[in-house]
Design goal:
The chain has about 110 residues and is mainly alpha-helical. It has 3 helices and 2 strands; from the N terminus they run αββαα.
Length: about 110
């Protein structure tokens, strides 16, 4: 299975590379306020737009990622606090059960 995934990645890479090599012609890039850059290779423009899109996508995802990390840290602290409390009370830690043992999973 691993080799199949790498073969698929290689095929996608070759297709993207061939697409890039076919689109090297010069283009004019128009910015705001009538600022024009002439003779820029199309592949450079496509790469710049791709990198900008990845950056903006990550920037949009950062609040959600940070919220999940804070929640995970809060839950770890709470778990540590509860374990310390159970040790102080002298009780044995509760047995951990698999989620399937508590409530069997329904078929999809």
């Amino acid at each position: 299975m691993r080799y199949l995934v790498w073969l698929l990645r290689l095929a996608v890479f070759v297709l993207v590379l061939m697409f890039a090599l076919k689109n090297t012609g010069p283009v004019d890039v128009n910015f705001f306020a009538d600022h024009v850059v002439t003779g820029v290779p199309l592949i450079v423009v496509m790469l710049a737009v791709f990198v900008l899109g990845v950056f903006l996508g990550l920037l949009i995802a950062v609040p959600s990622i940070m919220r999940r990390r804070r929640e995970a840290a809060r839950l770890r602290r709470e778990l540590t606090r509860l374990e310390e409390k159970s040790r102080q009370n002298g009780s044995a830690p509760a047995e951990t059960l698999a989620p399937e043992a508590v409530a069997p999973m329904a078929p999809l």
